[in-house]
UniProtKB/TrEMBL annotation:
It comes from the Bacteria. Keywords: DNA-binding, Transcription, Transcription regulation. PROSITE patterns: HTH_GNTR. This is Transcriptional regulator, GntR family. Residues 6-74 form the HTH gntR-type domain. PANTHER family: MANNOSYL-D-GLYCERATE TRANSPORT/METABOLISM SYSTEM REPRESSOR MNGR-RELATED, TRANSCRIPTIONAL REGULATOR PHNF-RELATED.
């Protein structure tokens, strides 16, 4: 066996990717086990495990207990969606950003939100983000004060909850859904559209391990388009 002294799990990931793309390990091929790969690369088994786990999460490897690790027969290309700062999103469009806090109150959330954030008081923040004076997105957010107690004293008149959370509340993962919804009376009034008009809506919950941080509904004004990347890794940072 030829030894390759590779440093770091990312370097091992790159080498495994090279072998897959070069068809040295074709689809369905059972790759060497972690012990053998660690010996080949001159590193700890845990380093190999992290590299293979990352590739499995991307859909390129199929890992099964007792069956070993195979190159996926039908690799899944996964899109990456970043949680962006709305201010930056608008400014990158070349527009002047404007933000208006509508309300910020500690309250008990409705049952569906409470089921996610848990019992106890939460902070309800609503705000309107605009570009060049035109409504861009209506933000309707609940923040868990149990998970993020500092939010109680945050001044959301000068900074949006979206931007404040990304800077002050770390999270480990999130759930996100995209839908088309008919504009409510409140949506229509804020977004300058007709009640019942179709809107692009994002609902998202972010978590710090087992504790929910925030649940938000983002209703975008008509004409909004979303962009994402396919087949590329992203370090996104609610």
């Amino acid at each position: 066996m030829t030894k390759h002294h590779v440093k770091g799990w990312q370097a091992i990931q790159d080498e495994v990717l090279r072998r897959i793309h070069a068809r040295e390990w074709p689809p369905g091929h059972v790759i060497p086990n972690e012990v053998d790969l660690a010996q080949e690369f001159g590193c700890a088994r845990a380093t190999v495990n992290r590299a293979l786990r990352a590739l499995a999460e991307e859909g390129l490897l199929d890992r099964r207990r007792k069956a070993g690790t195979r190159v996926a027969l039908h690799p899944v290309t996964r899109a990456t969606v970043d949680i962006s700062v709305i201010r930056q999103e608008i400014e990158e469009r070349g527009q002047h950003y404007d933000y208006r806090l509508l309300a910020c109150d500690a309250a008990s959330p409705p049952a569906p939100v409470r089921a996610t954030l848990g019992a106890g008081s939460s902070l309800h923040v609503t705000a309107l983000h605009s570009g060049d004076g035109a409504p861009y997105v209506f933000e309707d957010r609940w923040i868990s004060l149990k998970t993020t107690p500092d939010a109680r004293s945050a001044d959301f008149t000068g900074i949006s909850a979206n931007e404040w959370l990304l800077a002050h509340a770390p999270y480990t993962h999130g759930d996100i859904a995209f839908s088309a919804e008919a504009a409510s009376a409140q949506d229509a009034s804020l977004l300058n559209t007709a009640e019942g008009a179709p809107l692009f809506v994002v609902t998202r919950t972010t978590w710090d391990h087992d504790c929910a941080v925030t649940a938000v509904r983002l209703a975008y004004a008509p004409g909004y388009r979303i962009y994402t990347r396919i087949g590329a890794q992203s370090d996104s940072a609610g």
